[in-house]
Write a structure and sequence with these properties.
The complex is a heterodimer of chains A (278) and B (238). Chain A is built from eleven helices and 14 strands. Chain A is an alpha/beta fold. In chain A, strands 9-13-8-12-10-11 form a six-stranded mixed β-sheet, with helices on both faces. A five-stranded mixed β-sheet of chain A has the order 5-1-6-14-7. About 4% of the residues of chain A have low confidence. Chain B is flat. Classes of the chains: A alpha/beta (278), B mainly alpha (238).
Amino acid sequence: MIRNTILATALSLAGLCGEALAQDTTHIRIATEGAYAPWNYTLPDGTLAGYEIDLAQELCKRMKAQCEIVAQNWDGMLPALNAGKFDAIIASMGVTPERAEVAAFSDPYSTAPNAFLALKGSGLAEALPWHDKFDLRDKAAGSKEIVGKLDAALKGKVLGIQGSTTAGKFVDAYLKDAVTVRSYKTQDEANLDLVAGRIDLTMANITVLAETLKRPDMAVAELVGPTFVLASGTSVALRKSDTALKDKFNAAIHDVNADGFNKALTERWFGVDISVKN
Amino acid sequence: MDIPFLYETLLKLLTGVPLTLQLASSSVGLGAILAVMLALARLSGLRLLIWPASFYVFIFRSTPLLVQIFLIYHGLGQFHAVRASFLWPILREPYWCALIALTLNTAAYACEIVRGALLSVPPGQIEAARACGMSPFTLYRRIVFPLALRHALPGYGNEFILMIKSTALASIITLMEVTGLAAELISESFRAIEILIVAAATYLFINFTITRLVLWAEYTLSADLRPPPVTQRQGGSL
C-alpha cells in the first residue's frame, strides 16, 4: 500500500517535472553568473543586479511569465541547464559552435567586443599599437593579419583568462603558442593577479573591463591594443527541446530591440549602445 | 559508452599526473621534516616550544585547506610589502604557493601522527636502552624512531592519500593538474560525467598504487612480528 503511494507520488512528480521542463513557459527559472559586472553581479546584500537582470525582468514581463533569477557558477552552467536545474541562461553568453551543439540559443540581445587589459607602464600599450575593432568571424585578410602581429608582440607574456569564455577560445585558437595561458574561475581573480603582477595581461568583454577600471585598486591598469568581435552577440541559452520558450524569448528580444528599451538600458549600464539592431 | 572519447580524455588527464604526484610527494616529504620538528617541540617539555607548535597545529588543522591556499595566493599578493620583498619571485608562482600551502597543512596533521607514534614507544624499551648506556641521540636513532615509524605508517599512509586528493584544490589557483585539466575539458565539451569519471579513476589508480606501497613498507618494517622463516634442516644433525 505504502509502496504504491510512493510509486504514485514518484510517478506524478516525474510527470510534473517533465511537463515543467518541456511545456510550462509561464514559470521560468533563469540562471546568471552574478560575478560579471556590469552585466550581472551580486550586491553586498546578496541580491542580483546588472544589465542582464534588468533585461531578464523586462523580457519576462513582455512574455507574461513569472521568472526566478538564480546565481550559478559559470563552469558547468550548460550541463546544469540540460539537467533541468533551470530553464534559461542569461549570463553574457556568446554563441560558439561548441555551445550550439549542446544548447539552443535565442537571437542575440547585445554585442560587445573583447579587449585586452594590462598594467600601465608595462610597455604593452606600445607593443600593441593597433586600436581597431576586428571581427574574426569574417574571413577578411585584415583580421588574420592582426592575429599574426599580436602573436609576435605577445611572445613570452603570461595571459590570464576566465575559463570557457569566448576570450579563452580566442587565446586558445590564436595565441596559444606565443603566450603562457592561465585559466581562472572568475574574471575578478584574473584582475587580482594582473594587479599583483602574476600575469601580464588579461582578455575579456570590453564592457566588463571598463567597469573593472572604475575600481580604485584597478587604477594601475589600462585597456591596450585592438578589440575583437568573437561571437555573433550574447544570447539566451535554452534547452534544445524547449522550442516554444525559444520563440517566446525571440519575440520579446525583438520587441525590446525595436522599441528602444534595450538601447536605453545598454546606454544606462555601459555608457554605449550595444543593443542589436533588428 | 563512448570508449574512444574516454580514452582520449584519459590520455589528456594523464599529462596532469606528473604535476599531481610532484605536488603531493614534495609536500608530504617537506611536511614530514616539519612534522618531526613540530612533534619533538610538542614533546620537549619546554613551554617556549610547546605553545608555538600547538598553536601552529591548531591553526592549520582547524581552517580549510582551500582558505589556506587562497590566503597564501591571493592574500599575500595584496600586500605591496610582500610584492616588493625577496619572497615575491616564489610567491608570484602559483606552483610554489600551492606547494607551501599543502606542506604547511600536511605538517600540522602529520605532527599529530608522529607525536602519537613517539608516545606509543613502550617506556620499557627506552629504559632498557638507557640501562645499556645509550646516549639520547643513539636512543632516538636506534630505538625510538624505528619503533615510532612502524606505528606512524598506517596513519601516514592515510595522510599521503589525503594529500594526493588535496592537490585537486591547486586547480583553483590556475595549476593544470588532473582536476584542472578535467575542468578545462568539461568546459570545452560539456561532457561532465564521462570526464569526471575518468578523473576519479585516475586518482583511484594513483591511490591504489600508494596503498600497496605503504602495505609493502609496513610488511618490510615489521620483520620481528612475523614468524621466522622455516629453514631447511640439515640432514643428520640434531
